[in-house]
Amino acid sequence: MSILETISGPRDLDALSKQQLVQLAAEIREFLISNVSKTGGHLGPNLGVVESTIAIHRVFDSPRDAIVFDTGHQSYVHKLLTGRQDFSMLRQRGGLAGYPQRSESVHDIVESSHASSSLSWADGISRAFSMTGQDDRHVVAMVGDGALTGGMTWEALNNITDDNTRKLIIVVNDNGRSYAPTIGGMARFLNTVRTRRSYRNLYLTSRKAFDRLGTPGRSLYRGMRGGLHGFLSRFWNNEALYSNLDIKYIGPVQGHDIDAMEEALRQAKNYGAPVIVHMITQKGHGYKPAVRDAADQFHAVGQIDPETGESIESSNKQSWTSVFADEIVKLAERNPRLVGITAAMLRPTGLHKFAERFPDRVHDVGIAEQHAATSAAGLAFGGLHPVVAIYATFINRAFDQVLMDVALHKAGVTFVLDRAGVTGPDGPSHHGIWDLAILQVVPNIRLAAPRDGTRFREELGEAVAVDDAPTVLRFPKGSVAPDIEAQRRTADGVDVLREAPHKDVLLVTVGPMADLGLKVAERLAAQGIGATVVDPRWVVPVPRSILTFAAEHRIVVTIEDGIRVGGIGTRVRQDLREAGIDTAVDELGLPDAFLDHATREQILEDAGLTPQKIARDLVAQVLGSKVPVARPLPPEAANGQDVDQRSAGEKRL
């Protein structure tokens, strides 16, 4: 039996010898490589925190001591040490989540996988412990150096250092990377700490001095190195950063040395006040294919060959991200005013090709979506057209800036939202299902949802041509489906994908839901029900021709992969009522709930977004109930004029 198999909880670590701990670390790495290569997941980050996570659980008593992971993508080792060793269905329905999850274990506290929030959590938890007389409980927050580029981290530090009586330990996992190499002044400073000759010389000189004293000297060195090097390195390397924060600093510590980490953590634990433990680690440590990967050191992988690290997923399909990556370069070559902005995700969002072609025109602002949006407003004021590429789930963090800095100032900024809609295995905090509901309340904003690659290229070109308002282009995770050609396009840009000879149902599809709408229409046609399928392309503001179509049909059904509450269906309903059109509207989308990890297909089926379910319900409504025939829209309204269609009695009211 391996040592790992004997670990059912953190306290099983207490009796292990130094040699056994080293063996355990090796077994954990082997386990992670073997298992994650089969399921996909965050491999590189977890390989980099094996020893440090073991040390944290040896020194602190989880769950009595609260352990918080920033983003949580480095929590696989934590899961293993807290008794969760079945990784066979990692990130699949019924299996372990890819991030901490309270329903899995009392050892998991923070489920959100949005970066830079851990120190705020730690601040609040430690304050609660202090205020409720639980002064013997510690809080440990592991935060990557990339998260230090986020503003929340520094807001939290400002408050943490305001009260030096709490038992709060901040472990900075400094590997020089977030998804990619960490950028900015903080990154340059930490890189100086890691590489400065004075620190390296100090380390070697002090070690040699104690070695001359023989075994007693080496023992004394091991007992003192955390504090000695913490004190000296703070003096030599970190005084400029931490002296004004009024917070104890220990480090840098070799994060792959369990002894060194334990010593530093025990010193921090005994200090009785907030402490920063600065550890140096290597992302993907112990796995050569990950270390050699210059792009992201296997931050997240699909199914791979564990021996070589090569992908074994066969797909000849182009991803949505790659379509954007190619098209933005073409647009930038024609338009020198285009600039790109990313929030620490240059390659994942597809801006890397833009950066390679025009390195001076792409800016990585770190994990700082709020700053990205407002900086973009400033770039627009200066005569440029910024394209801000981020994941849809992260636009939530920059809403105020989109509203007050971009839209209020009529700034021409394009937001490109990758991973919109249901993303699948990464779980609740990574689904991009809120953007349509949140952003459509921004005055004058224009939202586009392409159904295929051709429409994506069209709409991206249209978006960057708008210089007096924010524009948004959203697309899902995964491969681009085959193009769906329209039968015709209206004057205001709505694509008619299928037009029925008799007009019973109007299906208004948002983006990639067009294919679903066409399949529903086929099933309705088999039941003698005429269904027209349209793709607005630009879903906000609602094109006038959508109102024209709605007035000609008996019922309108909107289909979107965002939440129903406040979604595009709600907007269509409101615009119809404002125009005096009383056609019934059925809004189909996702529930206002946090959706667990599962495949996209499983989640859409749960929400009833399948051809069979939608068609069956519509057959019952159209044939089994009395859906009224809508009144035709007056010619002047069809031509885009506002018309009051209320009855005389309604007008008097």
Automatic annotation (TrEMBL):
Catalytic activity: D-glyceraldehyde 3-phosphate + pyruvate + H(+) = 1-deoxy-D-xylulose 5-phosphate + CO2
Residues that hold Mg(2+) according to the record: D145, N175
Origin species: Leifsonia tongyongensis
InterPro entries, sorted: Dxylulose-5-P_synthase, THDP-binding, Transketo_C/PFOR_II, Transketolase-like_Pyr-bd, Transketolase_BS, Transketolase_C, Transketolase_CS
General function of this protein: Catalyzes the acyloin condensation reaction between C atoms 2 and 3 of pyruvate and glyceraldehyde 3-phosphate to yield 1-deoxy-D-xylulose-5-phosphate (DXP).
Keywords: Isoprene biosynthesis, Magnesium, Metal-binding, Thiamine biosynthesis, Thiamine pyrophosphate, Transferase
Subunit details: Homodimer.
Domain of life: Bacteria
Pathway given in the UniProt record: Metabolic intermediate biosynthesis; 1-deoxy-D-xylulose 5-phosphate biosynthesis; 1-deoxy-D-xylulose 5-phosphate from D-glyceraldehyde 3-phosphate and pyruvate: step 1/1
Spans annotated as Disordered: 630-653
Gene from which the chain derives: dxs
Biased composition regions of type Basic and acidic residues, renumbered to the chain: 643-653
Similarity comment: family membership: Belongs to the transketolase family. DXPS subfamily.
Protein name: 1-deoxy-D-xylulose-5-phosphate synthase
Coiled coil: none
EC number(s) on file: 2.2.1.7
Gene3D superfamilies referenced in this protein's UniProt entry, alphabetically: 3.40.50.920, 3.40.50.970
Record's keyword annotation contains Magnesium: yes
Pfam families in alphabetical order: DXP_synthase_N (PF13292), Transket_pyr (PF02779), Transketolase_C (PF02780)
PROSITE patterns reported in the protein's UniProt record: TRANSKETOLASE_1 (PS00801), TRANSKETOLASE_2 (PS00802)
GO CC annotation terms, alphabetical: cytosol
GO molecular function: 1-deoxy-D-xylulose-5-phosphate synthase activity; magnesium ion binding; thiamine pyrophosphate binding
Record PANTHER family: 1-D-DEOXYXYLULOSE 5-PHOSPHATE SYNTHASE-RELATED, 1-DEOXY-D-XYLULOSE-5-PHOSPHATE SYNTHASE, CHLOROPLASTIC
SMART domains membership: Transket_pyr
GO biological process: isopentenyl diphosphate biosynthetic process, methylerythritol 4-phosphate pathway; terpenoid biosynthetic process; thiamine biosynthetic process
Cofactor: thiamine diphosphate; Mg(2+)
Co-factor note (free text): Binds 1 thiamine pyrophosphate per subunit.
Isomerase recorded as keyword: no
